[in-house]
Design brief:
It contains two helices and twelve strands. It is of the alpha+beta class. It has a six-stranded antiparallel β-barrel with strand order 1-2-5-4-3-12. The chain has a six-stranded antiparallel barrel with strand order 6-7-8-11-10-9. A hairpin with a 4-residue loop joins β3 and β4 (about 175-185).
Amino acid sequence: MASSVQRSKPTPYPSKARSALVRRAVVATLVLLALVLVTISFRSPTSGALHGIQGAGSSVLRPFQVAGARIAKPFRDAYDYVDGLTSAKAENVKLKAELTQLREEVVTNAASAKKEKQLAALLRYQDGPHFPHGYRAVNAAVISYPDGPFTHTLEIEAGSNDGLQINTPVVAGDGLVGRVTNVFPDTATVTVLTAPESFVAARDLTTQVRGVLHRGPGGTLILDQVSKQRVVHSGDVIVTDGTRNPRYPDIYPYGIAIGRVDSVGVTDTATFLQVQVQPFANLSSLDSVAALVKTSHGR
């Protein structure tokens, strides 16, 4: 019978506790070594041996630092680009909001300036030498404009409570607008000069030629019934003619500015001169007007 051979026991693997103990010892040693080096570095002169070792170490590690910087540069540039793009977008949104606000302020200021300009013109006309005698001005805001090509009226914020009546003349600071054709207690309807049913006795302020102002072809204003033998110049000012016969008073007092002669034509087949007039008042963009109400001592 074969004798049994006694086998040696296998060497056991290091336990987890022993490995942890070794790691702790290494860490403690490194920390202690770092503290010693820091202490020596602070206490040693600037040109000592330790500083020489540090300089040599820096020289050895310099290529690795350069390589690391080059490797990191694309990532750093990409981060800077994304960060800059995000900042630019935020700044763009902010600038757009500021631009919108400024645009609204400009529009508001322009609208206010336009209204103030028209009101100032009305006040100058009311206080000026050409304001008709025997009338008072009732200033009113325009609250609605013509709503179509065949509508030639506008609504104003003044009515019978302010003394307005049918045929009350209405002016702007630049010139004649039209007349009241419908009146309510607090509002009134004004038919403007360019309406087909509008007729105004008018005269050339320079040559004293008289005629009838009404709507012409294409919506223009013409001074009609002017004989070919009379003289009218381009650029002459046309005003209301007023009352010729006290028995038949005109609804418009004398001397209200209407417009300026734009062109004068003559043809062999026409009976009268073809006098086209450009109105002073911008009838399509009025914000305020004045109704001319007769006073108790008016003639």
